[in-house]
């Protein structure tokens, strides 16, 4: 089993969490996004979308982190990450849907406005244009170009903030009866799938913008961080330089993100 990945990718972190939780053995293969290795001809044969992660196993190739995580739980001996009942599995997939349809693009746009935008500003013009041209997907191009031009004032950042606001409200409501985990009182792919997105916000020094008034969600988050898989899949692989860059970059836009959450106008930084 091989996982083609980039360590500081939220989708790769999600799959690494599942691998850690299921105790499966695998070989990591780094795909350096900074060097555009995800656009190489060899990698595109594995993943035509030019994204990470990609899992290969027994001659088959699986893409999309949500599907990979379900696959890993299916082939593991314990199958402990999926709820036991049909209703529980449906609820679990509802949380996965919230991640895939809102939070994934959302955290990418917030991260880009805080950190990657500054990196691209420092690039030579020809290399910057190459990065945009290589995107391929028109929607991803529009999101990236608009957020590069407008920063936190981009409408895509506003959509991201609102997506997280809605999800955190739903988490708080779901946990308000005192249970530890989101579905059937058992840690599952519902909790796991959300973890990298909250971790990214925390490293960007932005998570408290939402969690400061949500005691049940705060407790749930602290439980997640005590799991050995969190340390193995998320915190340990990050370097001090990566963490420092995220904290510094996110702190610069924290006030603006708070204004957006409160429905107030922001300026382009």
Give a structural overview.
- This protein has 269 residues and is mainly α.
- It has 2 domains: 2-75, 3-Layer(aba) Sandwich (Glutaredoxin); 86-261, Glutathione S-transferase Yfyf (Class Pi), Chain A, domain 2, CATH 1.20.1050.10.
- The protein is 63% helix and 6% strand.
- It contains 12 helices and 4 strands.
- The chain has helices at 10-22, 41-46, 65-75, 86-121, 125-133, 138-150, 155-175, 189-203, 208-211, 215-225, 228-235, 240-261; strands spanning 2-5, 27-30, 54-57, 60-63.
- Strand 1 (2-5), helix 1 and strand 2 form a beta-alpha-beta unit.
- It starts with a strand and ends in an 8-residue tail after the last helix.
CATH level 1 class label of the largest domain: Mainly Alpha
Silhouette: globular
Order of helices and strands: EHEHEEHHHHHHHHHH
Number of helices: 12
Straight-line distance between termini: 44 Å
Percent helix = 55-70%
Cα-atom radius of gyration: 18 Å
What is the number of strand segments?
4
| Order of strands in the sheet with most strands | 2-1-3-4
Poorly predicted spans: none
Average pLDDT value?
92
Strand content: 5-15%
Give the total of domains: 2
CATH topology of the largest domain: Glutathione S-transferase Yfyf (Class Pi), Chain A, domain 2
- CATH architecture term of the largest domain: Up-down Bundle
Class from secondary-structure proportions: mainly alpha
- Sketch the major β-sheet: 4 strands, mixed
